[in-house]
Amino acid sequence: MCGVVGIVGNQPVNQALYDGLTMLQHRGQDAAGIMTIDGQTLRLRKSNGLVRDVFHTRHMRRLSGNIGIGHVRYPTAGSSSSAEAQPFYVNSPFGIAMAHNGNLTNADELQQSLFNQARRHINTSSDSEILLNILAHELLQTNQLSLSAEHMFAAVERVHAQVRGAYAVVAMIIGHGLLAFRDPHGIRPLALGKRETPQGSEYIVASESVAIDGTGFSYVRDVEPGEAIYITEDGQLFSQQCAANPVHNPCIFEYVYFARPDSFLDGVSVYASRINMGRKLGEKIQREYADLDIDVIIPIPETACDIALEISRVLGIPYRQGFVKNRYIGRTFIMPGQTQRRKSVRRKLNAISAEFKDKNVLLVDDSIVRGTTSEQIIEMAREAGAKKVYFASAAPEIRFPNVYGIDMPSANELIGYGREVDEISALIKADGLIYQDLSDLIAAVRDENTSLVKFETSVFNGEYVTGDINQDYLDRLDAARNDNARHGSDQDETNHELHNEGD
Ligand SMILES: O=P(O)(O)OC[C@H]1O[C@H](OP(=O)(O)OP(=O)(O)O)[C@H](O)[C@@H]1O
Ligand SMILES: NC(=O)CC[C@H](N)C(=O)O
Ligand SMILES: [Mg+2]
């Protein structure tokens, strides 16, 4: 899951973009980038690494201008090369920069049609570069020297008509302003904020509301599925629905894991949804596993903490932070490569023996994906002296690949694929394993906003909301992006970089 942010201000936006990206860091730890427009020039700094490592004072000084966009990357297409860090840039028409969160499901066809119809070259293997060129091609088709809001919206309409998959986008067009849009299913989140200054209104568009609050803007609303928002360089805002049949299917995994608890996505407090997940899972344990002799409930930091606390309340069993998290190690699930993920679990978490010794513990996590965390954590609990180790997951069994911007390309790498709960339990060596039911997970989120009718839940039930995914597609995705295939391609860190503001 990547994070995107875009700001149109009436003062330099570099620091606010940087701050916004630090508040979205949990969505992508691989690479970061900022582009600003200063007069007629685009300024760029992007590289692999965390926000704090990518931008030094000298880079920040060069990122001048009152309008800009930023990105933190968690790759779900192409390679991890710094050349695929975002934002991307294309010079025609006008000079356009783009940052994208999501994943296109017809990228190959789009790349082919870009070549056949527009002779456009794509220099990386990133789907985001393709999306940028589709937008650029459609803006060019308007054949105007200067684009109005109507021209922008007409171009986005044509983008929606061709592009499949998930995309929450912020783009900038030199001499014009900032254009943000969200795919017609609203799979990935995108929200709008505003700030009044003596010089007039300033706007921000960001993946999560936390980046709006944290930069001193006020949340206005979420961008609608299929909608485009255009903010001119002088701060005028236009918006329009650009999709023929928009439906709202937000990704439910945002609430389970990706988003920060202090964010609101599509009118749902992520924190409140996680409390609901804990309550429903606690009630299931009470109902169906009343005979489990649990002494203590221990969360697997960090995402599961709020969930476990609520389970403890429902069950009336003490909650203890039995694992200490090393605050200098990031999220393990979004690290590229299984070797790195495996090693990081023990570096990240360490047990406090007193909380485990001679006790029956219930470990709680938000989700079990590859089983990397659960397997090692159960081993650590036993090493720390636990008698019995039960495990509860606030998300149901993850059995299907994700094609919309979560890096789960291969069913074979999912511990839940083709396995029943007792088989998974045996693999992670738990004394008992309890999963949330999908209907309860959906209700946990929906209870916070009943206008949301259907979520993107493919990893749990194999139903892909864009309707264009078949087994052949999944097989090709698996072959291209499973851990072994990727290990090979990520070795090839060829630098096909075209433009960067230096090191
Ligand atoms: O089954 P797995 O493949 O191990 O993936 C699932 C785990 O990964 C995530 O934690 P992560 O360390 O990424 O982040 P967190 O600190 O926010 O919990 C998630 O919260 C689970 O703990
Ligand atoms: N997780 C994401 O949103 C990734 C965006 C884009 N597909 C990339 O790989 O760079
Ligand atoms: Mg975790």
Structural summary, described in words:
33% of the residues lie in helices and 23% in strands. It is of the alpha+beta class. The strands form 5 sheets. A 7-stranded antiparallel beta sheet has the order 3-2-4-1-10-9-11. Helix 4 (107-118) crosses helix 5, helix 5 crosses helix 6 and helix 9 (270-288) packs antiparallel against helix 14 (438-446). The chain folds into 2 domains: 3-247, Aminohydrolase, N-terminal nucleophile (Ntn) domain (Glutamine Phosphoribosylpyrophosphate, subunit 1, domain 1, 4-Layer Sandwich), CATH 3.60.20.10; 272-327 and 345-453, Rossmann fold (3-Layer(aba) Sandwich), CATH 3.40.50. It has helices spanning 14-23, 51-54, 57-62, 107-118, 127-141, 149-162, 209-213, 253-258, 270-288, 305-315, 338-348, 372-383, 421-427, 438-446, 458-461, 471-481, 483-491, and strands at residues 3-8, 31-38, 41-48, 67-73, 88-90, 96-104, 165-173, 177-182, 191-197, 200-206, 218-222, 227-232, 237-241, 264-265, 268-269, 296-299, 323-325, 349-351, 360-365, 388-393, 432-435. The chain is globular, with a radius of gyration of 23 Å. The longest helix is centred in the middle third of the chain and has 19 residues, at 270-288. Bound molecules: 1-O-pyrophosphono-5-O-phosphono-alpha-D-ribofuranose (PRP), glutamine (GLN) and magnesium ion. Residues 1-2, 73-78, 84, 100-103, 126-128, 405 line the site of glutamine.
